[in-house]
Every structure is written in structure tokens, then in C-alpha cells.
Amino acid sequence: MKSNRNILLVEDNPSDIELTERALTMHNISNKLVVARDGKEALDYLFGTGTYAGRDIKEFPAVVLLDLKLPKINGLEVLQKIRANELTKLLPVVMLTSSNQEADMLSSYQLGANSYIRKPVDFNQFAEAVRNLGLYWLVLNEPPPTK
């Protein structure tokens, strides 16, 4: 799978970051993985502020893989800010979390998440989930036209 569009992974757990990187490599998903380790860093990346000041904000990731439980700004708040901004409101956001709380799932969808996926504990299942995410969001999905 090839694309010049990045994948933005918003994840604070180093083990989950490593597992995601390994799963992408294992399935030949060559998109660059940009990792934001907290909600503030994710928003800085998307809106070209802070550490990412000067980044071309019109170059959006193909998909955002967003954890719920994050330092500084939690995943639901990040999602809310993405959906509230005219530039990013149509950006595909997949909640990729270990939370099995129905309230988290409901809140995610109410705020505009495109999908909600629980992280499997087993690496092979996790790798397969990442492969399917990559196949769908990077190959099959037609993104909305840009203005």
C-alpha cells in the first residue's frame, strides 16, 4: 500500500506505538507514521502550531488514529476540536482505544468519530486490525474533495 499521505497516530503508550509501527511494517503499509504523544501535540500537528509551526496545514493525514486516554488534552476533546474546525471537520478519525466503556463509544460517535476500534490484546489480532485499517482508509476509502 503506497501513499504520500501520513497517518497520524495519537498515542501516549510507547508499547502501543511500537506495536502499531511493527504492524504497519509487517503489512507493507509504507505511509509515514507521525506520532503525537498527547492531545496538545496532535492539535499542534493538525493546525500547524507549537512544535509544528510552519507545517503546511493543507497536507492532512489520510487518517487519524486517536486514543481516548491522553495527557494534556484527552481524545474526545481532540476529536471535538477537529470537528469544530472548517479545515479538519471532514478528516477521517478512528478511535483506537483499549476502552470498552459504552459511554466512551457513544461520546466518540456523537462527536463525529468515523469508527471506534478496541485495541486487541494479542499482537497478531492487533496487526490484523491495523492491516484492515490501512486497507480501508488508505486504499478503499475515497476522501472528500478538497476545496
Mean of residue pLDDT? 89
Percent of residues in helices comes to 40-55%
Number of helices: 5
- Please report which band the strand proportion falls in: under 5%, 5-15%, 15-25%, 25-35%, 35-45% or over 45%: 5-15%
Q: Spell out the helices and strands N to C.
A: EHEHEHEHEH
Largest sheet: 5 strands, parallel
CATH superfamily: Response regulator
Question: What is the CATH architecture term?
Answer: 3-Layer(aba) Sandwich
Low-pLDDT residue intervals, each spanning 5 or more residues:
none
User: Do you know the CATH topology?
Assistant: Rossmann fold
Structural domains: how many:
1
Structural class: alpha/beta
Q: How far is the N terminus from the C terminus?
A: 26 Å
CATH class: Alpha Beta
Shape: globular
Strand order of the largest sheet: 2-1-3-4-5
Number of strands: 5
Task: Give a written overview of the molecule.
By secondary structure, this protein is α/β, with parallel strands linked by helices. The chain has one domain: Response regulator (Rossmann fold). It has 5 helices and 5 strands. The chain has helices at 14-26, 39-47, 75-84, 102-110, 123-140; strands spanning 7-10, 33-36, 63-66, 93-97, 115-118. It has a 5-stranded parallel β-sheet with strand order 2-1-3-4-5, with helices on both faces. The longest helix has 18 residues, at 123-140. The chain is globular, with a radius of gyration of 14 Å.
